[in-house]
Amino acid sequence: MLKVDTEVLIIGAGPAGSIAALNLAPFRSVIMVDRLSEPIPRIGESLPSAARPLLADMGLLEEFESQNHYPYYGNQFNWGTNSSIETDFLRDLNGHGWHLNRPHFEKLLRKTARNRGARIISPAKVTSLEQYENCWKVNLLEEKGSFSITAKALIDASGRTAPI
Q: Of 120, 89, 103, 144, which Cα lies nearest the Cα of 12?
């Protein structure tokens, strides 16, 4: 049987991975692995007003609002059709949404995950993984060399690149 290094290993430290980590870390041992040491700027990122109660529940709303993300009051989008769909937040009980400064948002999430006990390894790349009966063994490559981590649970929050 392999020695387990952590209960939860999260691949990806973007919003999905960091939010999983900051919510799990007070109760479980958590390690996040990300290919980037710092979040990169992204254009056109937004967060709808429905995120307000979620950010409040996670204890993030006050610090998030202090980051001065620009408010926005509606969306117009076109996903897979020729016609646009519009939504507005003018009558939304949660208020307006936000145009995100994505690096600031991600840094807040990572910092909160660390403060709650998660460990972050970055930059690092997953080179292989194996599932055993009771755990996962994930082989990683970072600047200092190769190493492996074993975990009871694995969360793939790697996004579009999906190395897992």
A: 120
Distance between CA atoms of residues 18 and 103, nearest Å: 13
Which are the contacts of 17, defined by CB distance < 8 A and separation ≥ 6?
Answer: 10, 11, 32, 34, 155, 157, 158
Cα distances (angstroms) measured from residue 159 to each of 15, 35, 155: 10, 11, 11
d(CA 75, CA 115): 34
Report whether 164 contacts 17 (CB < 8 A): no
| Sheet arrangement for strand 70-72 | 46-47, 97-99, 70-72
The pLDDT tens digits along the chain (164 residues) read 457 799 999 999 999 999 999 999 999 999 999 999 999 888 888 999 999 999 999 999 999 999 999 999 988 888 788 888 888 888 899 999 999 999 999 999 999 999 999 999 999 999 999 998 889 999 999 998 999 999 999 999 998 766 67
Cis peptide before 71 (omega within 30 of 0): no
User: Is 100 strand, coil or helix?
Assistant: coil
> How far is the C-alpha of 84 from the C-alpha of 115, rounded, in Å?
42
Residue 53, token pair as written in the block:
């109660």
